[in-house]
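SEVERITY: medium
COMPONENT: batch folding queue
REPORTER: lab tech (J.R.)

DESCRIPTION
The queue accepted two submissions in a row. Attaching both inputs and their returned structure tokens so the on-call engineer can compare them side by side.

ATTACHMENT 1
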Amino acid sequence: MDRSQLQQQSITAETSEFGFTLREVSKNTVDWSGGKRGWYLDLVPPSGAAGERVVSNALLKHDRIIFVTMIPSTIPVRREAPAG
């Protein structure tokens, strides 16, 4: 399967509530009879943050798919040599 067989969805809005960033996504209909086999969502928000990844299993609740993502820090990790 490739992306041509999937309906594209996109992030349409970002809000901040209760200390969390929440997003709204498009509701493009999947044309099952036209050969589409599902949908995909590229994690490219309006803010333009790069490198975002899903870090948990998705949860279906109240007709919504919920998943946790993270954006890796751009600050390099500094490791100290062990004392001794």
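ATTACHMENT 2
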Amino acid sequence: MDCAALVAGNSSSGVVETPTFKVPTVNIGRRQAGRAICANVLCCDADESAIESRAAQGAVPGVCPRGGRRRQPV
């Protein structure tokens, strides 16, 4: 996960573990509702356009302060 450019999904690992690595994360849907959400986690509805929009937002340098360690999205 330390080398990930972005994590996307609806599991707790995106909400709970990614803040440690400061990896931008797209949390899809409402499965994690009620959990504390850190600044690196971008939530969206489970529809294609919302996911694409949030993924593009998460891939922008500065959303998550990792500097040169982050790999570029493929």
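NOTES FROM REPORTER
The longest strand covers residues 25-28.
No errors were logged for either attachment.
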